[in-house]
């Protein structure tokens, strides 16, 4: 997976950019923590496990440059304040002659002008250094969850399937699709999940903040925002059981798999997939998924529990890919299905 520096971002706009509106969010990538000490080694291992082509050494070098320039700017700001204080003290000092005051005032004015010129230069350098760091750092992935396998996908559960009868549809295939949708929806409602209609068009800043290419947004059919990592893990396991149960009850050869790092999106720290066997392709196809994102998304979109509070931990998922399930049902010769079938009756 290639991951070079971006040319631009909806999440970050440099303070030195002319004729550009400021970014709608204040991104917190926690670089001070992720790019220091033992965390650098952990990040290298993360990138290696995901097989991402990311130049971490260049980012570390750019970040060091940014910190040096930022410190230089802080020093100049401090010097500006000192000059202003000295000027104020000089004006109030009645013990000096007017000539002494004029001489020292001229010296402070000259020094202040020099500092202002340096400040302009260092501010521009800081903006450029910050932009270089941020556009590269926005490609960093989420930290891997401890349950994510490093040595290939891990099968958590599987079923051989019980479908043997020929296909016989009394209605249109769309009716079967509606049966599946109603069944999955009923299961979700039965577990106190609220149904919402998501927008068809997303602002690019939201899509990018979620770790997606704005041109390829995916519909999220299950979602939860949690107060901490432990709660997110519990919700993730619950969502996984739901997605697995609604597919397994169809009787298709299927399995539950924890996906290895190379297949994860940058925003995912853990993903579990429900997969069904496709005889014609001689492989399993994903029909459901549950992903744990940690605080990756919330740090990019300023999603906190309350103003000034901790960032929320997010879990998302797809309960069922109905299109793929329909193909699997047909290919595996699903038993007679019609509008009064068990799928619809049980929903």
Task: Describe the structure in your own words.
The protein is α+β, with helices and mostly antiparallel strands and 347 residues long. It has ten helices and six strands. It has helices at 31-34, 38-50, 56-92, 98-137, 173-190, 204-209, 229-248, 296-301, 322-331, 342-346, and strands at 154-159, 222-226, 254-258, 270-278, 283-294, 313-318. It has a six-stranded antiparallel sheet. The two termini are 41 Å apart. InterPro entries: aa-tRNA-synth_II/BPL/LPL, Ser-tRNA-ligase_type_1, SerRS_1_N_sf, tRNA-bd_arm. It comes from Batillaria attramentaria.
Task: Please outline what is shown here.
It contains 10 helices and 6 strands. The chain has helices spanning 31-34, 38-50, 56-92, 98-137, 173-190, 204-209, 229-248, 296-301, 322-331, 342-346; strands at residues 154-159, 222-226, 254-258, 270-278, 283-294, 313-318.
Uncertain ranges: 164-169, 213-220, 335-347
Order of neighbouring strands in the sheet with most strands: 1-3-4-5-6-2
The succession of helices and strands, N to C, reads HHHHEHHEHEEEHEHH
Dominant shape? elongated
Query: pLDDT average, as an integer?
Result: 82
Strand content: 5-15%
Biggest sheet architecture: 6 strands, antiparallel
Report the strand count.
Answer: 6
* Assembly status: single chain
Question: Structural class of the helices, strands and pairings?
Answer: alpha+beta
Distance between the termini: 41 Å
Radius of gyration: 29 Å
Q: Total number of helical segments?
A: 10
Determine the fraction of residues in helical runs and give it as a percent range: 40-55%
